[in-house]
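Private note to self, pasted from the team thread so I don't lose it. Backbone tokens:
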């Protein structure tokens, strides 16, 4: 995140102080932004730092919350992660086939790497969702009998 902030400050300083642009630096900030968000999503799930909009869950005890988590992950997170992986693969494969680069002159010639974050997000999110489901199941079986 610090690199992203410093990069943005540098882009603005170059543009307004020196009247010049820095396409690669600007795109590097965009790549860092994508990394932070797409790889931060599974991490937020792991750390239980994601936003919950669940009226039902708030009214339940610990056992009920664990069941909501278990079924919520199984019915929503796992299928959405699998669909994201499945649907992003042709898009990413096409980008890798041509080693897609930036459409900007002087840009970073690695758009194919950026697009690879989509299936990586899907795999990491799926794995974390499955881990959360196992955690819920074990807590239901052992601690709450």
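Design output:
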């Amino acid at each position: 995140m610090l690199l992203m902030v410093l990069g943005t400050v540098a882009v603005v300083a170059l543009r307004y102080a020196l009247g010049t642009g820095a396409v690669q630096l600007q795109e590097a900030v965009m790549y860092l932004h994508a990394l932070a968000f797409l790889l931060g999503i599974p991490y937020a799930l792991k750390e239980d730092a994601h936003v919950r909009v669940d009226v039902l869950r708030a009214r339940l005890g610990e056992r009920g919350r664990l069941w909501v988590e278990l079924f919520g992950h199984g019915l929503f997170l796992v299928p959405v992660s699998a669909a994201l992986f499945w649907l992003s693969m042709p898009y990413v494969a096409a980008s890798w086939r041509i080693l897609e680069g930036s459409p900007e002159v002087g840009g970073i010639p690695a758009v194919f790497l950026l697009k690879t974050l989509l299936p990586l997000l899907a795999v990491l999110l799926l794995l974390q969702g499955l881990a959360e489901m196992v955690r819920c199941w074990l807590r239901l079986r052992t601690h709450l009998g």
